Amino acid sequence: MGESMPQYRSAAEGNFLFEYLDHTADIQIHAWGCSLEEAFANAGLGMFNYMTPLSEIAKDPSCSRYFDVEGHDEQSLLYNFLDELLFVFSTELLVCCELTVLTLDRATWKIRAFANGEKFERGRHASGTEIKAITYSAMQITEKEHDAEVFVIVDI
Amino acid sequence: MAEKRRKFHEEMKFIKRISPTQYEIAQGFVPNMRVPGICYVNSALEGLLFDELKAYSSSGGQGGFLPAVKQMANVAAMPGIVQRSIALPDMHSGYGFAIGNVAAFDMSDPDAVVSPGGVGFDINCGVRLIRTNLTEADVADKKEELAQVLFDHIPVGVGSQGIIATNTKDLDTILEMGMDYSVREGYSWAEDKEHCEEYGRMLSANPAKVSQRAKKRGLPQMGTLGGGNHYAEIQVIDKVFDEVAARKMGIDQEGQVCIMLHSGSRGLGHQVATDALTSMDKAMSRDGIKVNDRQLACTRINSQEGQDYLAGMACAANFAWVNRSSMTFLVRQAFQKIFKQQADDMDMHVVYDVSHNIAKVEEHLINGVPKQLLVHRKGSTRAFPPHHPLIPVDYQMIGQPVLIGGTMGTHSYVLTGTERGMAETFGSTCHGAGRAASRNSSRRTLDYTQVLDNLKTKGISIRVASPKLVMEEAPESYKDVSAVVDTCHEAGISKKTVRLRPIAVIKG
């Protein structure tokens, strides 16, 4: 499986470790990293970048914060993590341009992450496309030594 | 993902054309199917359907997604499903249910389920049509100005916030009372309610079943259009197919100006759906319910989670009606400002308001016996026939109006429901064009300025917040809405009344 994957990871956005894959109605975010922690964080960045280009987002120290999220298995942890980020965007308009998953506990399925970014301002920041929700549809999380990747479809 | 994928030609053995507008998906296409699937698709549209399946059969399992035919077949495997899983011509891959998927579950069967994936994240996303007595000639020289005023009045796109003040207390009232709130506060005319499904208020709503998270997302977004495929359009009547029905709806003059709104329950609805998915995901293992796809999370209708979801969904539905009503108010204000006339002098009545993402308890005849069913319509419009007790008095003779929103720059349609649709599709028909190309490929292959130029040459004024969205939402990314509507018309599940053409588009 997976021997010949010419386009695989080839469509990465800028220097980021995520890309957007084809889906008829929505968008599939494919994110990767050296560890599951990195892959999760990159999936979050991939989501924000779809709503507004992260290259234009500055780091406002007053906006930096911690996220604590839990799930009941690997997939629900990713789902809940992204859902929390989307919730913070929807209610406080916070866009994160830097995300670090500090701890990912596989016994209790808990995540602690640290984020930097700033508030989205219409007019100053470019509008991308609004994301409605995270889905479990065709969600995949795979982990190998020094490599991890996630596939998640978000609803547009 | 352990199961081995079949080859495309092996998959095709389960799919049989049974009429010029229908395919049957036989049991066995996916595991545990309880009923067959029926796809309404004609030869012009079938290519798109099979392309998804072909891509799936030949892919290696890295990434990828389930094709719509697989999804609607997975729905046919859910407990309590009645007769058939139905896919309409605008079908395409969604999450859980396909988009354009209808399924009914028997309320008297204790194992029957309700699924948030069968409604979608945008609960009560729908379309509203407002008529005017203006003609295309009246608006010709004011079109640009009108588009700008509408764009200024209606907040659209990423991070937009409503301008209609709402506090937490109002929000609970909105969730409980739906459009009765809008009428009370003076945003809606009393007669607007008569022309909405459920009269703009689902009585089963219980705001206590909506999480604080959902309320927090909904609060700043009242009266906002949203992004994606949502829009506000100024349209003109382009062709009348059924004069009697068109006259009844007051939209029988070619060149007559109408306004179409396409929007839903915003962040509130998205969060209600997300919360329900999360709670059901847990409940399913407890109750031993097995489904073929995790996104099909469901629960028994009579379980606590099922009842809570239905009460929360009704709140989100009410929010969506108030949202469309708030925007109707803004549209009327904009027209008053430009034409210096009162909205009622311009005859700005709501023709109808449909929901195309919702689950409803309805009575249908199954083998000649009336039965209470929970009908899930995801990307599908209710289309009740003439004389049905749940449609407005003034439309009793013609059947329920069905509003089909086209895509940016293409036609929209008004249809009516039929007896045949009532018998075959639980009184349901299509909801729009349905996507054909992925958002990503549209971004890659289409050029922003070219898409805008194409609209300009058609004489369409456009105001849009996001350039990327213009590419994603370009008509090239969608199926031909006329082919979709024609399939439904030929199949007899709905009947064409009028066709509309856009002259101004406002989008996120």
From TrEMBL, chain A:
Family annotation (InterPro entries): Archease (IPR002804), Archease_dom (IPR023572), Archease_dom_sf (IPR036820)
Keyword Repeat recorded: no
Q: Which UniProt keywords apply?
A: Calcium, Metal-binding, tRNA processing
Lineage, top-rank taxon, reads Eukaryota
Q: Which residues form the Archease domain?
A: 18-156
What is stated as this protein's family in its record?
Belongs to the archease family.
Record protein name field? Archease domain-containing protein
Give the classification, highest ranks. Answer: Eukaryota, Viridiplantae, Chlorophyta, core chlorophytes, Trebouxiophyceae
TrEMBL record, chain B:
The chemistry this enzyme catalyses reads: a 3'-end 2',3'-cyclophospho-ribonucleotide-RNA + a 5'-end dephospho-ribonucleoside-RNA + GTP + H2O = a ribonucleotidyl-ribonucleotide-RNA + GMP + diphosphate + H(+); a 3'-end 3'-phospho-ribonucleotide-RNA + a 5'-end dephospho-ribonucleoside-RNA + GTP = a ribonucleotidyl-ribonucleotide-RNA + GMP + diphosphate
Instruction: Give binding positions for Mn(2+) 2.
Output: 125, 262, 356
Active-site residue list: 431
Question: Which residues does the record give as Mn(2+) 1 binding sites?
Answer: 122, 125, 230
List, separated by semicolons, the cofactors it needs. Answer: Mn(2+)
Sorted alphabetically, which keywords does the UniProt record give?
Answer: GTP-binding, Ligase, Manganese, Metal-binding, Nucleotide-binding, tRNA processing
Quote the record's cofactor note. Answer: Binds 2 manganese ions per subunit.
- Under which main EC class is this enzyme filed? ligase
**Alphabetized Pfam families for the sequence:** RtcB (PF01139)
So where does GMP get bound? 229-233, 356-357, 405-408, 412, 431-434, 507
Q: Which EC numbers does the record give?
A: 6.5.1.8
Q: What does this protein do?
A: Catalytic subunit of the tRNA-splicing ligase complex that acts by directly joining spliced tRNA halves to mature-sized tRNAs by incorporating the precursor-derived splice junction phosphate into the mature tRNA as a canonical 3',5'-phosphodiester. May act as an RNA ligase with broad substrate specificity, and may function toward other RNAs.
Q: What else is known?
A: Ligation probably proceeds through 3 nucleotidyl transfer steps, with 2',3'-cyclic phosphate termini being hydrolyzed to 3'-P termini in a step that precedes 3'-P activation with GMP. In the first nucleotidyl transfer step, RTCB reacts with GTP to form a covalent RTCB-histidine-GMP intermediate with release of PPi; in the second step, the GMP moiety is transferred to the RNA 3'-P; in the third step, the 5'-OH from the opposite RNA strand attacks the activated 3'-P to form a 3',5'-phosphodiester bond and release GMP.
The similarity comment for this entry is: Belongs to the RtcB family.
Protein name per the record? RNA-splicing ligase RtcB homolog
